[in-house]
Amino acid sequence: MAKKQSGVSLLLSEGDAAVMRLASNVQLDDLKMLGCRAGMQAGKLEPNQLPSDLKQRINIQAATEENSQIILIITFSLTASENEDDEKALLLFEATFWLKYLLVAPMELNAELVQLFGQRNGMLNIWPYWREFIQTMTARMDLPQLKVPLLSPGGLKFEKDSPDHPPKRATKKLAAPRKKPRT
Known about the structure:
By secondary structure, this protein is of the alpha+beta class. It has a single domain, classed as Roll (Bacterial Protein-export protein SecB), CATH 3.10.420.10. The protein has two helices and eight strands; from the N terminus they run ββαββββαββ. Strand 4 and strand 5 form a beta hairpin.
């Protein structure tokens, strides 16, 4: 499907076009943080230092209620270790968010479309809250402020669960900030 926007023709996949139709037919009704945690191994980090290997994982659970609501539960996890092969995280941040969308007009929904909607629209809606959580927690832990980058199209790589189900988990590699001298 080609869509004309500002004199530019965009080629959209069938799934993207369906997500755009759905996104124009919903309104975000409610959003909240269900839970969070942050921790670091005591004595393992030098003051004002972050480990160099940062890994972020995202899990999206999507469901509909009576074809009139979409519920998303999005869990973020960010771990930091000394190197890529190190399995033991020196830092851990996790947050789970709950989003509720209401359909403005009746629309036929299926599990794949709702999951894609969560990956595209849900992620755009919740990403700023995740970024703020990380910035706030690193400051409270007296660590260099870690700035999660803006979400860009194609910036997340979703893993396939199985051939029969759409992907639910994403990963994104982050760069650790440069060390700043403590004042």
